[in-house]
Amino acid sequence: MKKAIVYGASGLVGSYILESLLNDANYEEIIIVVRKDLNIDHPKLKTLIGDFHSLANVGKGIYADEIFIALGTTKKKTPNKEQYYQIDHDYPVLAAQLAKDNGAKAVFLVSAVGANENSAVFYIKMKGETEQDIIDLNFEHTYIFRPSMILGDRKENRPLERFFIALWKIINPLFIGGLSKYKGIEAQDIAKAMIKSANKTNEKVKILQWSEMTALLK
């Protein structure tokens, strides 16, 4: 029986990660760190209230075998680049560091297609730096999931995103061969792929794109 800690449980992918873990018999306790209570009542769930600034104290001494990270914001919600970087890079890296210090053996990170620390594009570079900094923490297992367009219904009103999701569903069949990594994938399927990977860790560092994630669903 394992214990897991989840960051980003209030988000689209994170909510599915939480749901999947709570329903998985391999886990005895799921800890979530959120800014406000999600009002979910489950015997396996432990909720910690905190954010980037309070995390060092909130997460002190909290043991988990695995950490799942699905943190992120958008340019519209966080136009300031320093704040954006803090949420998408600093927070995930700090969360991973604390988990490892507390004994976690594996980390599962939601990143983005094309992540590259050497890119000139801010978002792609940031995601690449986040990946590399977490890899450098030297967990026994580091699994990185790189979705392109994440499909699913969000709680927030994002009309432009809804447009692109609808568009991606139409053009998805056009992404074949080496372009398959750009195919859209349901948020629920990302979560399922993460949990399946967690229940069968066999590599030190593994990058999973659309084809690798969907293969786990068969």
Task: Give an overview in words.
This protein is α/β, with parallel strands linked by helices and 218 residues long. It has a single domain (2-213), classed as 3-Layer(aba) Sandwich (Rossmann fold), CATH 3.40.50. Helix content is 37%, strand content 19%. It contains seven helices and nine strands. It has helices spanning 12-22, 55-58, 81-101, 122-135, 159-171, 187-198, 210-215, and strands spanning 2-7, 27-34, 45-49, 66-69, 106-110, 141-145, 150-151, 185-186, 205-208. The strands form two sheets. The chain has a seven-stranded parallel beta sheet with strand order 3-2-1-4-5-6-9, with helices on both faces. A two-stranded parallel ribbon has the order 7-8. Helix 1 links the parallel strand 1 (2-7) and strand 2. Helix 1 (12-22) crosses helix 6 (187-198). The longest helix has 21 residues, at 81-101. The radius of gyration is 16 Å and the shape is globular. The mean pLDDT is 92.
* Beta-strand content: 15-25%
Q: Please report the total strand number as a whole number.
A: 9
Instruction: Please report the number of helical segments.
Output: 7
Distance between the termini: 25 Å
CATH architecture: 3-Layer(aba) Sandwich
Q: Identify the overall geometry.
A: globular
**Overall pLDDT metric:** 92
Low-confidence stretches: none
Write the CATH fold name: Rossmann fold
Top-tier CATH class = Alpha Beta
Fraction of residues in helix: 25-40%
Specify Rg, calculated over alpha carbons: 16 Å
How many domains in all? 1
Walk across the major sheet and give the strand order.
3-2-1-4-5-6-9
**Class from secondary-structure proportions:** alpha/beta
CATH homologous superfamily classification = NAD(P)-binding Rossmann-like Domain
Largest sheet, described in full?
A: 7 strands, parallel
Q: Helix and strand succession? A: EHEEHEHEHEEHEHEH
